């Protein structure tokens, strides 16, 4: 009788252990269900956040966790407003915050506040060097700078001109802009081309870039051989300055593959941009956010600023490969979007249909 009782007890204990193991294994998967995830973007000067980043992130989160809720906010280039948005998200009980900081230094406070409440922070596109985020997802910004600058340097030399370069950097409060700037100088400094002047564009604002470039055109008439602009917005500002001055537009670089920039490239106004499919980083951030919401701690594929990171490699786009990189099957843009009536002749000339 004792042997039977002992056997039953062992069986019950085993069943209980098995049940406990199964429950704990499933807890992580179910923990994310119904979770709130904050997605905090920095500005509307770059059209990508509203048009691509936010919709793509939401779509991937819905796929991964149908019951999760994405709290999307755009700070409109206001660091104080972004701090308020982060505080509001924390008050609403978010399980993770994905943030592209307006001001990389100021965002350290957001990291500290979130981590004090055990809410993981995923730095998105722009790093937060002053505080260790829980994860960083981006394209390799230093590589972006070196790629666009080297491509433009090669084009200026190919044209055989003796003009110097203007460098239009991004925002001085954006750590990603500083990485791009570092990459730009890695190509410009040893190029043998003269650096005429350089500018850090407040808030990445195209109108500020345009104002500055206008001043340089007046200061260096006929001496500007190219403009290394850190993104498509500042590139657009630079190009507008040359057109307003009624002077030929030299090769101008860009970054982000925005629709307007792609049209300028096809039309011959902008020399290059960077193809960095936002779908890649938006979905990667969603995967990481979902894992954090489940109570997991995803490991990075590399480390940057002492933060586990995942950095993707971008591609330079010029007239030579714009159709293949951006307009082909699965491309970021549709031919119908790009080749509008104003650009149809330019598209036809490049064989884009």
Automatic annotation (TrEMBL):
Question: Which residues are in the Periplasmic binding protein domain?
Answer: 37-297
Transport listed as a keyword: yes
Designated name of the protein: Simple sugar transport system substrate-binding protein/D-xylose transport system substrate-binding protein
Q: Which Gene3D superfamilies match?
A: 3.40.50.2300
Instruction: List the molecular function annotations (GO) for this entry.
Output: carbohydrate binding
Subcellular location field? Cell envelope
The UniProt entry, under Pfam families, shows: Peripla_BP_4
InterPro entries, from UniProt? Bact_Solute-Bind_Prot2, Peripla_BP_I, SBP_2_dom
Q: What is its main location?
A: other
According to the UniProt entry, where is the signal peptide? 1-25
A cellular-component GO term for this protein? outer membrane-bounded periplasmic space
Q: Which UniProt keywords apply?
A: Signal, Sugar transport, Transport
Q: Can you tell which superkingdom this protein's organism belongs to? A: Bacteria
